[in-house]
Amino acid sequence: MKVTGSLSAETEVCVPASEAWDIYGSGKVVGVVVPKLFKQIDVVSGDGSPGTILEVTFHPGGPPTYQEIIHTVDNEKMVKEIDIYKGGFLDQGFNLFRIRWDIIAKDEKSCIVKLTLILDIKEESMANLSHVSIVPFVGMMTTVNNYLIENHKD
């Protein structure tokens, strides 16, 4: 048996949705968050489209290195989904650990950035669910959103 669930957070950013999507929907996000949050993120294979595999390495003392795969990039709906592909939470009994970014236009000058963690864990590994926190992902969202605001051109 398995257990599924999700955690989410959202914030308003005073930039057009297209501007936010230009960062969140592309590989440009890597340049914004490295080295602030990660030691490095390397492309193992692919070009940033679905199927691309990235290796995420944290600063010393951080979590172990893991790989993620870009699952979905929908430019029309402004949705990007990334799954942990190898290591990380998969080593702790998770069948699925998906990070979903939705960029939702509010008006011409602002948008909502919504982050959702979609989880599927084996019942026998439920104790490891306590290791999951949305806080680091919100930190990443805050870093990117601050970058968007600081580099917004009216």
UniProtKB/TrEMBL annotation:
InterPro entries: Bet_v_I/MLP, Plant_def-hormone_signal, START-like_dom_sf. It comes from Escallonia rubra. Residues 4-150 form the Bet v I/Major latex protein domain. Belongs to the BetVI family. The keyword Thylakoid does not apply. It comes from the Eukaryota. Keywords: Alkaloid metabolism. Signal peptide: none annotated. GO terms for cellular component: cytoplasm; nucleus. This is Bet v I/Major latex protein domain-containing protein. GO terms for molecular function: abscisic acid binding; protein phosphatase inhibitor activity; signaling receptor activity. Pfam families: Bet_v_1 (PF00407). GO terms for biological process: abscisic acid-activated signaling pathway; alkaloid metabolic process; defense response.
